[in-house]
Fold these 2 entries.
Entry 1:
Amino acid sequence: MRQLVILGAGTAGTMMANHLHKSIDLHEWQITIVDQYPKHYYQPGFLFIPFGLYSEKDVVKSKREFIPHGVEYLESAIDRIDPRTNSVMLASGTTLNYDILIIATGAKTAPEQTEGLTGSDWRKRIFDFYTFEGATALHAALENWNGGRLVVHITELPIKCPVAPLEFSFLADWWLAERGLRDKTELVYVTPLSSAFTKPICADVMGHTLTDKRINTVTDFNIARVDNDQHQIISWDGREVPYDLLVTIPTNMGDAMIERSGIGDELNFVPTDKHTLQSKVKDNIFVIGDATDVPASKAGSVAHFESEVLTKNILHYMHGEPLTEDFDGHANCYIESGFNKAFLIDFNYELEPMPGTFPLPGIGPFSLLKESYVNHLGKLAFRWIYWNGLLKARPIPGISHTMSRTGKRIPPTVPTDVASEA
Amino acid sequence: MAVLQINGSSIDVNDEGYMTNHAQWNPDVAAELAKGLGVTLTPAHWRVLNFIDKDFGEKGVVPGIRRMNKVGGIPTKELYDLFPEGPIKKAAKISGYPKPASCV
C-alpha cells in the first residue's frame, strides 16, 4: 500500500480526507490523518459567543465524526516532518512514512509574541475571541460591562478571517445600543493598516461604516507593548491608546511543528505555490488552508475552494501528470454589520471585492459589498452548510472554486494585477 | 502617475511617490528619495535597504517588520530609529519598491 498522510483534522484537513476518500483508489492508497485535539470547532461561530448569540453547543463537534470510515485517524501530537526521508515523527515516538504529505495544520494565536500582552490584564481586561476559551471569557466580561473605552485591536497581519475584527466592532456597536450602553461606551478600532481593510474599495466602504457607527479608528499602529498598570497599548512610534476593555487579535502563526521541521517562514507558514498548492519544500508535500504562505485570506471559504483544486492536483501527482494551476485566490466572506444585516465580499488574487450580486448575476439573492438582511440570513445559514456540506466535501450548488466576474460591477479603471494580501 | 527629475534622470512614481519602474533605481535616486522623507542615508540605513532588495528578489514582496527582525536580523526599535513613524513604508519607497499592503 502507498501512503498518503494528512497532518491536521481541522477545516482543510477534514475536507481533504473526505475528497480523497471519494476520489482515490483505496486498494492502492492508505489515507491517514493525524490531529492531537479531539474537538472540531466551527471557528466563524466564535464571533457570536461574546454577544451570547452562540454557545458551546453551536460551535463544537467531535473531529472523528467528520472523518470517513476507511481513513485511519490518529490522535497524536506531531513532533516534526523530515522531508529528506519522507516521514513524520509523532510525539509518541511513532514514525509515519508517506508517499504524499498534505500539511493542514492551520494557524493559531500567539499572544506571547507581544510584550506584556499576557500580563496581569490578560483575561481580566484583555481578551481575544479567536479561541473558544477567549470568546467565552469575553462573553462574561461583556455581561459585566457598564461603559468606558472598548478598544478592538489587530496586532499584525496576516490573521485568520481578516474581516472578523470589523465584524466584532460592528456587532459591539449593535449589542451596546440594545443594552442602552452605546452612549456610555467609546468604541475604538486600532489597526496596523493605513485603512480599515487591505483592499482599497472595500476599505473605503468599511471605513465609512466605522464612521457611521461612531467607531474611532487609529491606523498605522504597530504595537510595541502593553502597559498593564496604566491599561494602555503603546506603539513603536510612541503612541498610547488607553483601554478599559481590550479585545485584541494576537499575532497569528503556523504550528510550532513547522518551525521544528525547519520548513516554515518567519511566521511558521509553509512556502507554497499559490496556484498549484504544492509546497516549495519538496514535490511530494502539498499545503492547504491557513498553514500556507499564499497571499489569500486565511478563511474557511479559501480552504474549501483550495480543497477542490488540491484534490485534482493530488490525483495528477499520483498519475505522474502535470499539476493544474487552478487556484485563483478565491475568497467569499460575510461581514456581519449588526442590526440583522451583513455585507458579502467575493474576491481573488487579481480582483478586489466589488459591488454586485451573488451568486446569480442581477438576481442574487446576496448583495456584494452592500449591507442587507438577506446577507445576514446567509451568514446564519452558513453554520448548517459548514457542518453538513463543506466538511463532508459536498459541492455547494452554484459556487465554483474559481471566482466569477459576472454579477460584479467592475469599473474599467481597476487594475487586475493587485496581488496584495487580504 | 508622475515623473520626478533626479540628477537629470526621469523617475516614474505613482500618486503616493512609490517608484513604478525599478530599473530606474540607483543609490543616488535612493539618496534623493530619502531626502524627500527627511532621512539621510547611513551604512545602517543601507543594511536595511540591501536586505529589502535581496528579499524582494527572492520573495517578490517587501518584507514585513517580523521578517526584518527574524530573517534580516534588524530589531524593530532600530527600524523606527532609522526610518521614523512608518519604517517599512519609508524603506520600501527609498529602495524603489511598491508600497507594502499590510505593513506599517
Entry 2:
Amino acid sequence: MENITNRPETTTSESASSRRSFLRVAGAAAVTGGLLTACSHADDNYLIPSGSARAAGDTVKLPTGDVGILAFAYVLEQLEAAFYEMVLAKPYPNMSSADRQLWTDIRGHEIVHRELFKAALGGAVPTLTFNFSGIDFNDRAAVLIAAETLEKTGVGAYNGAGKYIKDGGYLTLAGKIVSVETRHHSILRELQYPKSDAFAGPTIVTSDTGLHLAYEPTYVLPIAQKFILETIDASALVSSLA
Amino acid sequence: MNLQNLLSDIEKVDGEIFDRLAHVSRRGLFSSLTKKTIAAAAPAIMASALTKAYGQSSGLPQNVKDVLNYALTLEYLEYRFYDTANNLSMIPNDYKMAFEVIRRHEQVHVRLLKNVLGADAIPEPKFDFSAKGTFTDTFSNFQTFAAIAQTFEDTGVRAYKGQAANLQNAPAILQVALQIHATEAAHAANVRYIRGQKGWITGGTAAMQGLPSVVNGSYAGEDNVTQAGVNLVTALAGDNRITPAMIMEAFDEPLDKNTVVGIVTPFFA
C-alpha cells in the first residue's frame, strides 16, 4: 500500500474568476504538471504538496442550483484526473505500452474536463487535495478496480444529476461528457472481464430495460469523499435541487 | 438505436409534446423513479409516459403514430442487424457475448415502441444490409459487420445528445433518456475496442476510426475543440500531457437528424 497524498496543482490561485484569469492559471498549472511528469521516477514524496494543501477538517461548501451541480461535477473530475495522474506518476511494474496509452488517454480526457469546469466556475470551488492511500498503485488489478469504480461513479453521477440542471447549455455539455465517461467505463470493464458482456451486462445495464446507471448526488458524494481530504459539504446544494 | 429522433420528430407534428410529457412526469413518475424497485419497470414508464401524454383513451394522433412507427422501423433495423448476425458462426466466440447483450438491448427498444403503439405498430419491414451494394459481406465477414455496428453505435450516441435539453421539463423521462444514451456509449466503446480502435472518437473523419469515407457523416464535427466558449487547445497549450486529439476525444458531439437519417437510409430495402 502507498501512502500518498496527491495534489497535482499546487500553484493555482483559487481567486481566478474570469476566463482571462483561467487561461493564465491553466498555463501555470500546465508547467507544474510538466515538471512533475519529468521527474516521475523521483521518490514517492514529490507529489505531496509543500504547504498550501488543505487538511482533513477543512470544509468546502458547494454552491446551490446549476452552479452547485457544475461544482459537484468539478469535484468528481478533479478526483478522476488526480487518480490518473497518480497512475502514471507511479506506474505499476511492467506496465505495457497499450496500458500506458490507455491511462495517458484517459488522464488527458479527465484533465480536459477538469480544466473546462474550472474555467466555467471561476473560483467557486477550490483545487482539492486527494488521498489515494487505500489504493495499491503497484498492482494492475487494483488500479483497474479503482479506475472502474471512479468511472462508474462518474457515469451514474452525471446520469442522476442531469435532471436537476436548469440551463439547457449546461445539460448538453454534461451530455457531451457523460458518454465519454461511459466509454472509459466500458473499456475498463472489458479489461477487467475480457471478451464478455461485462461492458453492458446486467450488473451495469438492466437487461430488460436497457438503462445504464444513475446515481443521486447523495449517493455519489460519500464515495468521492473517501478520497478527498477536505470535507465536501453538499447540504445546501442537495436541498436546492428539485 | 435511434429513439433519439423520436421526440424531436414528435415535436414537429405536436409542438406541445414536451409540455405533455412534463405534465405526466410531474404527476408522479419523478418520485417513483428514485425507488430502486421501479428501475425494472423503466421501459414501461417510458412507454406509458408517451401514451399518457395523449390521454387515457390511447388517443395517439395519427401523425404521432407515424413518428413512433418510423422510430420503430429504425429499431427493427438495428435489432434485425444484430439478430441475424447472432445466429451466424461468423462472429468469433470471443465476441458472441458482447453482441448478444447489444442485441438484447435493441430488442428491448423494439418492445418499448410496440408497447406504446399497441395494435397500431407496423410489422417489421425488409432491410438491405448490403446498404445498396456498398457492403458485399456484411454477414460473412466479421470485420465488415463490426465496422457497420461501430457506425450504428457511435452515431446513436451522437444522435441522442440533442434531445436532453428538450426534456428538462420532464425530469423522469430525461433521466431515462440519459440512461439509454449511456448504454449506447457503452456499446460503442466495446465495439470499437473489438475492432482494435480506441474506445473514444478521435478526430472528425471516418478514416480516423478505421472506417470507409462513406460514413464520414457519422464523425463530422467530432474534431471540435471549443466547449462552453473555451478553446481548449489554446487553454491547455502549456500542458504537454494534453494533445489536441485528447481534447477532441474528451467530448462526444451532437449530430443532427438529417445526418442520422442519411446514414441509415441505405439499409432499407
